[in-house]
């Protein structure tokens, strides 16, 4: 399958825009791809000669970017020129939950989508296919079309009159596995009304995705499918976490339960891992958006159903922090707790909505001293997430206020701690040497394994009390 598209502009050089366009450029060397962003620092990082400094950490991304950058993949802040030159423009800007005004706390804030649609309307030349790559509330394409239609027919310079076609092409990649997800997607979804434009986009993906995996729907089904996919995935996490709590109370083991139910092909084995709850920029935001839409259409019972998935997630996080306090004799004031992992999942530097944020904030509120180690997340990010700056030295601090600092190795974090709390499933945590670590801790010492990743019997053999999520025995 070939495509008539020769130049692509992607607005938004974030976790989705950067990796997605890198893979398109890699697989379609005949297409010039320019990723633009208003954020100069982010663009500079994408252009950094040192590929370990790319602003997004994803395994394999550096290799793909290294292959294409400067050839047919470009990162720039020159938004207007890139739009003017493009046959196809992807909108891959952020769509966070609104923090104020109508729908605050639930609806998506569409100001960046609207601004980028207006930029496309102003700068595009000739015919332009506009692709919604951001996750959007169902029927947003109507707004995008209305903005573009207002500029339809205008002539820029000596060119042909402007015309637009709008497609929805939501992104299903998961952070941490973005490159394999993009290179070998379960499916690509294209929603639209104009078959020539759908064919043009399908032709791009057709360079490496088998045609039976390229699904075509109407615009609204495509927009709603993305919200629904995330809602179903998050629902599985909340479901298994609810059962994990029951396992802990009854002597059952959630790993055994998950294995037993996952063997049923109607249920399937994936996404049945109990843990500290879901995080990331998408699940909560997209479900809240679904809740808002259901409320808007008067479907209040449906809204309440999906709201409970988010509520259970927050409950699970508070449950874990409460449980840590209870096991540490009812108080963590002044106690040092090693936090292993801050990113919302392994193999990413993204901390948006990370379970670690809520759990660490709870423990800080209780006066704990947190020694945080994450292989990819640094002080500045943690400070902005926790809303408190790092302290210089946990040991000399006198007040009963909570405090934190980061450590450069797990051993440094664990030293003198009363407890270790594992919050991200970084593979290296599976092989931590508890025989070596346990003696560094103040006894009696605890391991709280919220990711079921540590070697439990080795930790117990080293004298630690161990709690593992969902394990009642
Ligand atoms: N992160 C994920 O795993 C994931 C997966 C699937 C879908 N999505 C969706 O994709 C969209 C983007 O997510 P993200 O994680 O890449 O966000 P992000 O915040 O990492 O990146 C968005 C970028 O857009 C830029 N931007 C905003 N307005 C702009 C404008 N007018 N002109 C130029 N640049 C502009 C911002 O500066 C920012 O760098 C969201 O709708 C999200 O829900 C995200």
Q: Could you please describe the fold and organization of this structure?
A:
This protein is of the alpha/beta class. Helix content is 40%, strand content 14%. It has 17 helices and 14 strands. The protein has helices at residues 17-27, 40-46, 61-68, 79-85, 111-123, 140-149, 178-183, 195-205, 219-250, 254-262, 283-296, 300-327, 355-365, 379-386, 410-414, 434-437, 456-461; strands at 7-11, 32-36, 73-76, 88-91, 127-132, 163-168, 188-191, 214-217, 336-340, 369-373, 403-406, 419-422, 446-449, 465-468. Helix 13 (355-365) links the parallel strand 9 (336-340) and strand 10 (369-373). The longest helix has 32 residues, at 219-250. It is globular and about 80 Å long. The N and C termini lie far apart (56 Å). The model has no long low-confidence stretch (mean pLDDT 96). Bound molecules: nicotinamide-adenine-dinucleotide (NAD). Nicotinamide-adenine-dinucleotide binds at residues 11-17, 36-39, 42, 79, 92-95, 112, 115-116, 119, 134-135, 171, 173, 175, 281-282.
Average pLDDT number: 96
Give the number of helices. 17
First-to-last CA distance: 56 Å
Find the count of extended strands (DSSP E, 2+ residues).
14
Shape: globular
Helix fraction, binned, reads 40-55%
Structural class: alpha/beta
Largest sheet: 6 strands, parallel
